Amino acid sequence: MSEKFEIRFSIQAEPGSPEFELLRYLKNSGQTLYPLRDMAMTALISHWLPLVYRDSKKATPQKLHQVIRDCTHRLMMQLQYFREMDEMAQEQNQLRDSTSNGQYPAQIEPSPPAGENETQYDPDDLFNN
Hints:
54% of the residues lie in helices and 0% in strands. It is built from 3 helices and no strands.
């Protein structure tokens, strides 16, 4: 049977700070992609679960290994998503800058597939499997 946990906390943040912007985003559930509880759990699990299993007396080395692999994969996927977001933002800035200067917009070429500029991420490589 599952056990219910209730965790509440309060945070103060200065307007304009990164913390303030994040909290304002999270508070506006109409703006977020997922419910706050889901986003918080995903972030906490990805970042902290390996340490929980590392310190657990019940966790086997195999379970710790699997948790680390799963969390590493999740974080690498998030990193890849952020890189793609950054590339798109850079392309939009270049397009905006060129059109605001009265120049014809530069032809934006699609990003090369992963692997041409950097190696593909393989979580097994981290553990020499």
